[in-house]
Amino acid sequence: MEGILQSQAFYGPAPAPARCSGIKKTKKQKRPGAAAPDGFLNHRFLPMLSRQHQELKHNRKIEKEFFASLSHLSAFYGLDSIDIKGLLFPENISAAYKYASACLKEIRPELQLAIIQDETHSACLATINEFNTGMYLYYIPVKPLLILLDSAKERETGELLLSVFAWLKQAVHIPYYTDSSSYLFYCYEMIETWLTDDPAYWDEGDYTDNRSQLNASRYFGDIVERKISSPYNLFHFEERVAGFKPADQEQARLFSIAQQALELYRQFPNRSLWDSFRERLIEPEEEHRLNPDQYLSFIWDFHSTLTESLTSYVNSDIQEMGIADSPLAIQLFDKAQAAECLDLGFETKLFHLIDELIGYLNELK
Question: What pLDDT shows up at residue 281?
Answer without folding.
Answer: 82
